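Holo prediction — pyridoxal-5'-phosphate.
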Amino acid sequence: DGKKYLDLISGIAVNTLGHNHPRLVQALADQAARLIHVSNLYGITPQIELAEALTTNSCMDKAFFCNSGSEAVEGALKLARLYARQKGYENRSGYVSMKNSFHGRTMGALTATGQKKYQQGFEPMLSGFTYADYNDLASVEAAVTDETSAIVLEPIQGEGGVIPGDPDFLAGCRRLCDERDMTLIFDEVQCGMGRTGAGFGYEASGVEPDVMALAKGLGGGVSIGATLARGAHGKVFGPGHHASTFGGNPLACSAALVICDELFNKGLLEHVRAVGAYLKRGLDGLVGKYDSVVEARGRGLMWGLVINRDCPELVGLLAARGVLGNVAAGRVVRIAPPLIITEAECDVVLEALDGALSELG
Ligand code: PLP
């Protein structure tokens, strides 16, 4: 109808550079004119460059490319089991993941997801998974057994309602993994790639995982996922262990290279930190203004505005004010705009939220 919208959810934390970013459009057009897909039977230059960009800018050493977040998690789960087998821990096929987590819809990722509502109708889930309370180290300690190969968690739970991991909790999980030679897997599909104002979500805590799953913002809208690993975990997969026909194809990698360049070389991370702080001030103002708003939690440009009751109608109230929003976990307005959002655009968002909250009552 010719109505303009400001996209506050960016394809669920995917469109890092917004829509139709000229650099991304040009890179895709150029790459499409050269090669779109050749398979991993051949070395792919943009794939090698992307692996270098991701490992140079993170604590990781190796990259495996796939096409989605679920697949990146599957790769991480498989890697942890193989690590255990290669180390001679024959019985270690289990995982501890977190309640209220979300890891994807394929059977491994779905089983890791600690929310029954996503699993209903698809049982039985895979065996070997136990679920611990997020941000509760004692609960993780109680869940770990001699059969646990890995602890799997999101450094900030996304779909569960934007819940940041407590640094002490993350450090405790790291210690447990070190003591027992288990794999620490961070699912950074939603909170990675600059979303929190750091390159990766783990950086805020200083806790480095052994394996990290990426997707969503990595391709800026083009499907790509990655399973990254470091140290001994980077040496687990050899030729033939794991593969993907489309994974790391030239087109997707050329898109992700633009995202990495903007984030790590062109100042986008600094922008996220500055504009994120501006947005946080505005959100805190709404917390102070409305009794219905409990808190604003998150980091960088990943925020959850927590309402004191279920509020699906907020999506419509925001849309009527020209803002495309989303509600996670029933009562958390999820704010995950393109990372290029400006302060002036944040003002538009805050004004729309103000109006919508006032109408919500
Ligand atoms: N992991 C996390 C933390 C996610 O938020 C999601 C999707 O929302 C996934 C995994 C699954 O990613 P995909 O939908 O690309 O398979």
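READOUT: Residues 303 and 335 are 5 Å apart (CA to CA).
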